[in-house]
Specification:
InterPro entries: Cell_wall_hydrolase_SleB, SleB_dom1
Domain Cell wall hydrolase SleB: 53-150
CATH superfamily: Cell wall hydrolase SleB, domain 1
Helix content: 25-40%
Radius of gyration: 16 Å
Number of domains: 1
GO molecular function, one term: hydrolase activity
Protein name: Cell wall hydrolase
Keywords: Hydrolase, Signal
Largest sheet: 3 strands, antiparallel
CATH topology: Arc Repressor Mutant, subunit A
CATH class: Mainly Alpha
CATH architecture: Orthogonal Bundle
Length: 173
Amino acid sequence: MRVQPPKLRTAALLLGLGLLAACGGKQTEVVAVPADEVECMARAMYFESNRSSRDGMVAVGTVVLNRVHSDAFPNTVCGVVGQPNQFAPGVMTKPMTDRGAPLARATALAVLQGERHPKVTRAKFFHAAWYNANYNNMHYVVTAGGNAFYEKRRAHLVTAPNPLPPLEGITPH
């Protein structure tokens, strides 16, 4: 019997859980996701949302995928998350050791299978909610999981120039 590496085993387990969840109630299309993409997405969610909320994790994942689909960024999750100076230091190398890791992996799989944060929409950027960024092109769309998410716009199109009050509990699960 061949033993699978831990990351592959985790991704296979999560995919199996997704399949089981799809069996009950409403019809859900389950999409096969490469294990490395799940791991990279989980790492971004785990380290960037400070493991504080599922909504924050989904919002981070939505930004990552918005970047993947943009010509201005790499076209893979691991490429986006691994970009220098874009995410938390050590995002690709530090261990995920606490109880937030399973939630990050399950949430990563959900986002890679199609779930999105409904308020993030087209945003490709975020920073810690406490940080005071003094730029006139930041249009804030939501604050969740300790981060303020925003779109870059021309200054005259910015209608929400300051981070919004935190909003939690709007993603399912």
